[in-house]
Amino acid sequence: MSSIIRDLQINGTDWKRLCKAGGVAALLQLACGLVTMVVVFGLGGEPATVEEYFDLLQNNRLVGLVRMDFASVITMGLYPLTLFGLYAALKRNHLAFMALAVALVFAGVVLWLSSHSAFSMISLSNQYAAATNELQRSQLLAAGRAVIASDMWHTTGAFMSGIFLQGATTLVSFLMLRGGVFSKATAWVGILTHGLDLAHVLLMVFVPAIGQWLMIVAGPLYPVWFFMVGRRLLQLGKVSPAEE
Fold this sequence. Notes:
The chain is mainly alpha-helical. It has one domain (2-236). It has 11 helices and no strands.
């Protein structure tokens, strides 16, 4: 452990600050994950029809956005920062593998965010509310169905995003087992969380029922992993007054 702290000191305070930023990002991801769980159990999941999407976004846009899993947009956007923090912590012993993990996470996040349908549905909802005849409404409903069919849960890009992101974080979790930077518990929680989610992504194509059950197990583990990672990165990111 002392060698890891010494390495962070040798490389300057910037690496420590990057650890700290990654820790803050992980804790924000924890908060977003808890919000998602509360929304699903309290308000319900995503709307089932285009009409329900449009009505919800017009009557209560905030509820509509949270039910469209907008908290996950923030979670995904924070992943690169969390991975940079992990890179700073683990680069000494696993430089090449951590560089690969960061690259895969960036690719996965870009693919996922590019296929999220929230802003497209807001635009269509506004047009639907302003439509003056049934022809316009029917065309907008058809456009809404097309957006839903091509959102992050139904596209090839989303499938590859899941493989890149979960593959990278599973790799990072295995790397945590070596080097003494993170506890074994943190590593194994990460392996279970991201490993099960990776299996869920792969099995949803062929055996959807099993894939859903795997996600039921993996989902509640995410807040635990974010908390453990965030706390440890904040510890590694402490900068002494002398270094300042």
